[in-house]
Amino acid sequence: MDRGGGLEEENLAVAFNDVDFGIRLRQAGWRVVWTPEAELFHHESISRGPDTVGERLHDSPKEVAYVEATWSAILRSDPAYNPNLTLVTEDFSLAWPPRASYRS
Predict the structure, then answer these.
(1) Are 85 and 100 in contact (CB under 8 A)?
(2) How far apart are the C-alpha atoms of 74 and 68, rounded to whole Å?
(3) Backbone angles phi, psi at 46, to 5 degrees
(4) Buried b (16+ CB within 10 A) or exposed e, 65-103
(5) Does the pLDDT of residue 56 top 70, yes or no?
């Protein structure tokens, strides 16, 4: 992690630091690889509680704004996310109008 710069603790104290780290690694020439043999369990928010109450209610929008300001162009063309899917919702529905351009 040190060679990749580590996790962004100042602007992303809780959320999105994994996304930010992965993008920075890719920009540094490292590959982010998926393998079907790995089995990981991520218990979202189990240690910190939900983002919809208390202090996190105010911090979450700041972290979202930081990620959007820093990585929006890269996230719009994420090679791991199908360009036929929407970026507006989190339900993997089709984008309309389509984000992918097709040539015949």
Answers:
(1) no
(2) 10
(3) -65, -35
(4) ebbeebbeeeeeeeeeeeeebeeeeeeeeeeeeebeeee
(5) no
According to the model, what pLDDT value does residue 65 have? 92
Q: How distant, in Å, are the alpha carbons of 7, 10, 15, 27 from that of 1? A: 8, 16, 17, 14
pLDDT digits (tens, 9 = 90+) for 8-25: 989 998 888 889 998 999
Closest CA to 67 of 8, 14, 5, 16: 16
- pTM score, two decimals? 0.71
Tokens 């929006």 found at? 72
Those residues whose C-beta lies under 8 Å from the C-beta of residue 61, and which sit 6 or more positions away, are none
Which two tokens mark 88? 């507006």
Instruction: Show the tokens assigned to 44.
Output: 């979202």
CA 59 vs CA 47, 65, 72, 101: distances in Å? 16, 10, 19, 36
Q: Say if residues 63 and 11 touch (Cβ distance below 8 Å).
A: yes
For residue 10, the SS3 value is coil
Tokens of 102: 């097709």
